[in-house]
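Notebook entry, cofactor series.
This is the third protein in the set we're modelling with a bound small molecule. For this one the ligand is S-adenosylmethionine. I'm keeping the input format identical across the series so the outputs can be compared line by line later. Sequence and SMILES below, as received.
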Amino acid sequence: MLKGIIPFAHQLLKDSVEKGAVTVDATSGNGNDTLFLSELVGEAGKVYAFDIQKQAIETTKALLEEKNCHNVHLIHDSHSKIKQYLPSNTEISGAIFNLGYLPRSDKQIITKGDTTIQAIESLLKMLKKGARIVIVVYHGHEGGKEEKDEVLQFASELDQKSFGVIQYQFINQRNNPPFVVAIERR
Ligand SMILES: C[S@@+](CC[C@H](N)C(=O)[O-])C[C@H]1O[C@@H](n2cnc3c(N)ncnc32)[C@H](O)[C@@H]1O
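Returned structure with ligand:
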């Protein structure tokens, strides 16, 4: 069967992230992707996880404690400031974004095109060869279309000699279904 959006996003990272690697969850939210990355890189690896909402950081922290994960650096700040938190020579093996708002929370607090693109630009400079930035684009909410358009515009203009960019989307689903954009350093 065709993979759903989240399983497809995770598979892209499973196929390219090695044990012991450094990864980034740019939008930790309820911590599901942070936990996924934490288990993927193992005890010798590291995950930097960002969120601007205290509630998201607390929920992620509790989930990681419950699962006995100790390789995550949780950062209560915007992913647009990634450069301030990661050592300058860091090489990243994978990163994930889940755009939109925190489920069952304030729908006014959303990711935005300008800060999302700033974060992607910072990550592109730190990305190892063959590594991927996987972006799950939710865009049905207010403000979602603007961000979707900006991210697609930015990603589609990346130099094909340096990056491969794909979009994975169910095109026969109703109500603005989410899709995946993945950027791979060549
Ligand atoms: C769709 S949710 C993420 C869901 C999460 N990946 C999970 O597994 O539960 C989007 C999250 O992005 C966060 N966010 C919005 N703008 C942000 C920014 N500039 N930097 C970091 N996080 C941000 C929101 O607070 C929200 O928790």
